[in-house]
Amino acid sequence: MRSPRTMISVGAAIVSLALVLAGCSSGDDSGAGSETGTLKLWHYESANGAMGKAWDKAIEVFKTEHPGVTVEFERKAFEQIQQNASMILASDQAPDLMEYNKGNATAGLLSSKGLLTDLSDEAASRGWDKALSPSLQTTARYDEKGVMGSGNWYGIPNYGEYVMVYYNKALFKQYGVAVPKTLDEMTAAMDTFVAKKVTPLGMAGAEYPAGQLYYELALSKADRSFVDNYQLYKGSVDFKADPLKYGADTFRDWVQKGYISKQSASLKAEDMGTAFIAGKTPMIVSGSWWYGRFASEIKKFDWGTFLFPGNKLNAGSSGNLWVVPEQSKNKKLAYDFIDITMRPEVQTIMANNGGVPVKADLAQVTDPKNKELIANFDAITKSDGLAFYPDWPVPGYYDVLVAGGQSLINGSKNPDQVLADLGKAYDQGVQEIKNG
What we know:
Blueprint: H1 17-20, E1 37-43, H2 50-65, E2 69-75, H3 78-89, E3 97-100, H4 104-112, H5 120-125, H6 128-131, H7 134-137, E4 141-142, E5 152-153, E6 160-168, H8 169-174, H9 183-195, E7 201-202, H10 209-219, H11 224-232, H12 244-256, H13 269-277, E8 283-287, H14 291-297, E9 303-306, E10 316-318, E11 321-323, H15 331-341, H16 344-351, H17 368-382, H18 397-410, H19 415-434
Helix pairs in contact: 2-15, 2-16, 10-12, 12-19, 18-19
């Protein structure tokens, strides 16, 4: 979820589908340095974010190495791509290269429809398969039914991401709260804030944050077999039992105790993030995609991060994928651009701006916070602690999760009812995938 996990800066326009489909470019697939034509590139990273800055550098390098090629770059909104990808990629207006969300419900679905180019040969010949650890490869490969973890390569990630707790150090100091190391310490810290009439945890019920918190709470009681069953269909999933029941019950309990505002049901992730930037919120539970933006925009107080207390499993994965639409007119140019984004010079820019690169020169990372961010991700991957995201298992599940999160916040449904809705949509989706 972000899977709307990468963020557009405030004021980015949501362009209509008509504009999305506007314009079509063609080009030549001849050798590097001699090409002419156009590379049509779309992504949805903010200009001041880590990936946006790194990929701006990649565009600069690409232009230098391909002087006869014009780069037509368009920054899209995440939801714009999320909602219209199948329609866009089935048309002759598809870009040559696009950032797209990973997982069964997104990249997996498009690959099973034949809308994405098989990148397996390029991954082998260009060494991408060696640059990415097995856990990061999970989201790059999909079988014929669009289930991640095996099969051909349909996307290439060049960064990682994971969910953590961001906290306002000034507010923690003001109210005498220590950084929690266990879930019990986390609830005690939130009790302290509530006693001072401060809502401790920022939230956004209208988009992904609520679902991610529910999942983090469930993961506090989960093991790898649960993740394999839930995400990869290796076994059955019981929505009436822990860990999912614990996740929903505890989420609702946190709302009732005042840890989460009931008014947050209608808020979007941007609202949650800007409130934290403004210094109004002690904590938010969200992803590393915010890190670069917070580093750039927070000037009036010190802030930090910690892993969700006590969890051995955390929501996270490779970052979003570079995908090459099957309708791409310049596939060779697209492959060349992907390759540039994997280079240490581009990866190090990402690292120094709050990103989580897969192949940076860490000796060139200067900021202690950035080193901590990358070190925490390395620790998670080395312990097999990436649990992917709660909306990934089946197509359309993101909307079901958002609705469930809103219900838990506003109290329109109790946890058992929400879990019943989630279970029904999950079971139906899994059956549809298994039946082809």
